[in-house]
């Protein structure tokens, strides 16, 4: 049997139930929220526009410059 290092007397103070609630309640509820999903999509499209403008200006200054890449956000980036 695997030994647990979590103190069973201090299980509430160690945040066990907070973490459990976050995974079981918050994340699935946010994952289904259409407003949040559409806002996240709008954020990613705005970032894409900024990235394109930035790369266009960099190409004017230095034609051999590497293109900048800004990664898109996912819901899991904001909710653990």
Task: Describe the structure in brief.
With about 80 residues, this protein is mainly α.
Structure, described:
The chain is mainly α and 80 residues long. Helices cover 60% and strands 0% of the residues. The longest helix is centred in the middle third of the chain and has 28 residues. The two termini are 29 Å apart. The mean pLDDT is 80.
Layout of helices and strands:
Blueprint: H1 16-31, H2 34-61, H3 75-78
* Helical/strand content category: mainly alpha
Tell me the span between the first and last alpha carbons: 29 Å
Number of strands: 0
Q: pLDDT average, as an integer?
A: 80
Q: Which radius of gyration do the C-alpha atoms yield? A: 21 Å
How large a portion of the residues is in β-strands, by DSSP E? under 5%
Order of helices and strands: HHH
Low-confidence spans: none
Q: What is the 3D shape? A: elongated
Question: How would you describe this structure in keywords?
Answer:
mainly alpha; 60% helix
